[in-house]
Amino acid sequence: MKQCAILLSMLAMMLCSCSNSAEQQQASREVTLTLGAYTVPKDAYQKEIIPAFKKYWKEKTGQTVNFQESYEASGAQGRAISAGFEADIAALSLEEDIEVIKRAGLITHDWKAGTTGGFVTRSTVAIAFRPGNPKNIKDWDDLKREDVAVLYPSPKTSGGAMWDVNAIYGAGLKLTEVKNNAQDKASARELLKAIQRRVKVMDKSGRESVGTFENGIGDALVTYENEALLRQKQGKDFPFVVPEATILIENPVALVDKYVDKHGNRQVAEAFLAFLLDKEAQRSFARFGFRSIDEAVAKEFAAKYPVPKYLFDMKYLGGWPAVQKDLYGPEGVWTKIIQEQAHEGK
């Protein structure tokens, strides 16, 4: 009887061991990666890039990658990740939103150290208008007119909105510089204030702002060039113009070290980041309206993405720390404009 009990105990231990081994083997065949992104590139990720990476990783390692995805306004997404949303990869609209995560102690490496400076896509700020262009919108000055209702999202929540405001203010600087050989900050401020006065709705994200425009509100939409191109790709009549003076948008992506190490998935997270910079993913981004950070891919799509005459980048405005202070800080240009218009009743 005692021998029987011992045999049964040994058998139970063997079954338990086999069960644990099977669970471990199953776990080793699957890995989960959490992507926290801003709303605009959702289609590119979901329709092409993520399926392509899953196929690539399965063929290379035999592992199945399960993606958990979240798409929110860039500023909101950055704050969510900093506050505990455990994204392994942060793909956001602007580098300041990545820096928020870094300052929270969650990104411990130099995320800008790579050959692209931490950027994964590019775009420009454009102006969309109604089919047939009934208001004859061609450039920034047309958005100042009393008969034009303008849309763009709120810089308080949207990285896209910051790009929009940066583009308008920077265009004011660039155009006066071209005309007078010197930047005129007062003229740039007046351009921004005049256009802000015509803004009717400020949604929380760039994607929501496009949706509002598609629902028939407004005459002009200040938006990413890629948002307009995506609508055209979908077969929609969505005309737009890229102003002669506009900003080069550069969108960052970074691995979130603390969460990756907690989840034990650094190998696949690093592979996904590298995959985003490879030609296959860069072509996918280009098909969905983004300008490629890969020189060879950019040449392939050169006809689709002409370079604006007076294109400028964030360095022209002094970089993000300066812009955060000079435009969006307590005494910043945009902040003061909003306060003035609230006092004036707009």
Domain tally: 2
Largest sheet: 9 strands, mixed
CATH topology of the largest domain: D-Maltodextrin-Binding Protein, domain 2
CATH superfamily of the largest domain: Periplasmic binding protein-like II
Number of strands: 9
Give the termini distance in whole angstroms: 92 Å
**Which structural category do the helix and sheet elements fall into?**
alpha/beta
Shape: globular
CATH class of the largest domain: Alpha Beta
Summarize the structure.
The protein has 14 helices and nine strands. It is α/β, with parallel strands linked by helices.
Q: Could you describe the 3D structure shown?
A:
It is a single chain. By secondary structure, this protein is an alpha/beta fold. Helix content is 49%, strand content 15%. The chain folds into two domains: 30-121 and 250-300, Periplasmic binding protein-like II (D-Maltodextrin-Binding Protein, domain 2), CATH 3.40.190.10; 123-249 and 307-344, D-Maltodextrin-Binding Protein, domain 2 (3-Layer(aba) Sandwich), CATH 3.40.190.10. Strands 1, 2, 3, 4, 5, 6, 7, 8 and 9 form a nine-stranded mixed sheet that branches. Helix 3 (74-82) runs parallel beside helix 4. The longest helix has 27 residues, at 2-28. The chain is globular. The protein starts with a helix and ends with a helix. Mean pLDDT is 92; it is low at 15-27.
